[in-house]
Amino acid sequence: MELNVVIQSIAIISCMILIGAILSKTFKFNEDTRGVFISLIVNVAIPCIILSSIFHVEMNENIFKMIVLVFCLSILINLIGIGVGWLLAFVFYRQSAIKRELALLSGLGNTGFIGIPLCAVLLGPEGALYAAIFDAGMDFTTWTVGVFMLQKNKIFDIQTFKSVINIPIVAIVAGLVIAYFQFTPPLLVINLVDQLAAIAAPLAMFYIGVLVMTLQGSKVKESGSKVWIPLTTKLLILPGIVAFLMLFLKLEQTIMQTILIQSMMPTLTLASILFAKYSADENLGAITTVLSTLLALLTIPFMIYLVNVYVL
């Protein structure tokens, strides 16, 4: 991976976050505006990135095999991150009531909002496709293992299963079916999807910028003493473990680069919403999301530099 391209991409992301922070002064950020942001990103922009990637990649039997592999590796990597986070939380905060939250924040990354657009810029359509599959594995882990850990009664019911079926997952399945049968959509549809895909990164970064401005100093101080566990695990330890694994796995370069980049992503943006739904620590989720995103602007180039030197 070209480090200068990575740095330029991170710089652009930083500028978008700054614009979002400035824009937050022009409107009231509440549940309605949050819902609009999330709906546009999750239900329009991300599915269009997925479909655009599929439309621009020549699908064959080998690609389909690699898709299955990336999906399985994504689940494994997410579980490793959760396991490391749980271990650290158990060692340092054994009596704490938020060990579950710390563990999930350590393993589940922002592979959709930031990961897919970043891979699309750095690695092209094929990288974006694999990034979308990795994100699907993260979604699967979130709404199965994550929900199971957060639930008090530890029941995996039909409602939980329905949560796994979201529009990005539907876009992946529909796109792969279209590709399998070698159907070429009309040029109008391809151009529309391409243009809608382009709004993913700006919208996601604007949302992060707005989120930064909503943090209250008292809440940061209250939860800040423990967020070092997910920050350290998600941004440094987990990418290091994945890079070590890549030394032993003989993967195509694009797949290896995609998996490495996705493993470096900050904590998932929807953490606070997920925690609120299951009566967990919502503030911890929001604070970790914001802090990990800001720190990731520094750690991603640093980790990619180390990977270029010692792995690739």
Describe this structure in words.
The chain is an all-alpha fold and 312 residues long. Helix 2 crosses helix 8 and helix 3 runs antiparallel to helix 4. 45% of the residues are buried.
Measured as a percent range, the helix fraction is over 70%
User: For the terminal residues, how far apart are their CA atoms?
Assistant: 8 Å
Q: Helix segment count? A: 14
Order of helices and strands: HHHHHHHHHHHHHH
How large a portion of the residues is in β-strands, by DSSP E? Answer: under 5%
- Derived from helix and strand composition plus strand pairing, the structural class reads mainly alpha
| Main sheet record | none
Strand tally is 0
User: What's the architecture in CATH terms?
Assistant: Up-down Bundle
Spell out the key features of this protein.
single chain; 312 residues; mainly alpha; 14 helices
How is the topology of this model organized?
Elements (H helix, E strand, L loop, with lengths): L2 H21 L7 H25 L5 H32 L6 H9 L3 H40 L7 H7 L2 H14 L6 H11 L2 H15 L2 H7 L4 H19 L6 H11 L7 H7 L4 H29 L2
Short description:
The chain is mainly α and 312 residues long. It is 79% helix and 0% strand.
